[in-house]
Amino acid sequence: MTDQYAVIGNPIGHTKSPLIHGLFAEETQQDMVYTAIEGLLEPDEAFADTVRAFVAAGGKGMNVTAPFKLKAFAIADERSERAELAGAVNAMKFEDGRIVAENFDGIGLVRDIEVNLGLPMAGKRVLILGAGGAARGALLPFLSARPAEMVIANRDVTKGRALAAKVGARGPLLACGYGDLEAMGRFDLVVNATSASLTGELPPVPPRVFSPEGTAYELAYGKRLTPFLRLARNAGVRTVADGVGMLVEQAAEAFDWWRGVRPQTRAVIDRLTVALD
Ligand code: ATR
Description:
By secondary structure, this protein is α/β, with parallel strands linked by helices. It has helices at about 15-30, 45-55, 70-75, 80-85, 105-115, 135-145, 155-165, 225-235, 245-260, 265-270; strands at about 5-10, 30-40, 60-65, 80, 90-95, 100, 125-130, 150-155, 175, 185-190, 210-220, 240. Helix 1 (about 15-30) crosses helix 9 (about 245-260), helix 5 (about 105-115) crosses helix 6 (about 135-145) and helix 5 (about 105-115) packs across helix 9 (about 245-260).
């Protein structure tokens, strides 16, 4: 039987995952189908029931998107360290009646920055805006890339501090408020991991954090020039990017994990890229 995969979320209408995994499957000649499932928000156990029904029908793996990443975390039998730290799961594999859970968002982001944008993070100064799920997912993969210094800025400073306390031993990580950034100099890479762009808002980041030779990266994708990217560009930043590469790279990680074969990503990224201007 053809192996079944799916992405589950709510809403799910705009997901690109079936297209991405369909292209990967075609390229690597895998016998699989990948569909989108709109999960029910209620009752509480609806998510787990839908996942179990998918497994019972022969499902081999699932991607998980908003608002189910925490629920997926809760129902997993086994979680990677990345997923543990993120407190969220974006990919599941069903093996011998067990749910094995992963979070590939951060690793996809690092791959996009280092491989696709050609910006090795080792020795660089990195600033992450936000301390929610998206920022948490990025922390371990970022620290593994050995930046010289990593700063998390968040409106709610206690949230950032709690995060830094949790992973601080892994590398040079510091948490602060936006106001503190005024005195911290320029960063080689500034990543907007807040959810501000989803509502067209701008995190209160001072323009002086940007370096003209540096990179500004927006995790949201397909939203063209967001207020954050516009700010970066006005500050003279040469490389501004949105999260389309991260989206495709995290999908490639999951595909490799499920199928044991690594798909090419360049053509898929090019196909999904929406011009910023
Ligand atoms: P996600 O899973 O997408 O990261 P989340 O866990 O709800 O979503 O976290 C949202 C993050 O965006 C938080 O860090 C939030 O900051 P606070 O913790 O201080 O609330 C941040 N955020 C949302 N809107 C923002 C805005 N307009 N300016 C700055 N930060 C914002």
